[in-house]
Amino acid sequence: MGSKKLIQDPQQIESILSTARFLRLALSDAENPYIVPMSFGYKKNAIYLHSSQKGRKIEILKKNPRICFEAAAETELIIADDPCNYNVRYRSVIGFGQAKFLEAYNEKVDGLTVLSEHYGKKGPFEFEEWKVNRLCVIRIEIEKMTGKESGF
Question: What's the domain of life for this entry (predicted)?
Fold first, then answer.
């Protein structure tokens, strides 16, 4: 097993984001941190998320659009005879950025397309306008990302 290692190669970091199934979005309001797992899409240094237009996450983002996210891929628990020797094999990315609520219909469709393609669907897609208008689509402009791996 290798030790924890910083990943600096942008292509490796993008590969992790391309294969991760979910990310954890960390937010902060005036009182407490808040973290929520979400499905996502990644394209051109941006993360795309979708959500209901209401809820704690949306209220926090309206007050403070600064976020942190974490996505992991190739995770595996390694069990040993001695519980003190258990380990985890993983590749992960942590990033920081700003959330922007997409308002224009075409921008929302573009974000939903990135999300759909992340999970293996191939476009073009036809989204019903009334459904798109009900959703909140968020683009995270990534300012900084780092990667880490263990067990490779």
Answer: Archaea
- Would you state the CATH architecture of domain 5-150? Roll (2.30)
Residues in a beta bridge with 24: 37, 70
Structure-token match 């292509």, residue found: 11
Going by C-beta distance under 8 Å and a sequence separation of 6 or more, which residues neighbour residue 145? Answer: 13, 93, 94, 95, 96
Q: Which pLDDT tens digit goes with each residue over 134-145?
A: 999 999 999 999
Cβ contacts of 115 within 8 Å, gap of 6 or more:
39, 40, 41, 48, 49, 50
- Could you read off the pLDDT of 16-37 as tens digits, one per residue? 999 999 999 999 988 889 999 9
pTM of the model: 0.88
d(CA 108, CA 104): 6
Length, in residues, of the chain: 152
All structural domains of the chain with their residue ranges: 5-150
DSSP 61: H
- Quick check: 6 and 146 in contact, CB under 8 A? yes
Does residue 88 contact residue 74 with C-beta atoms inside 8 Å?
A: no
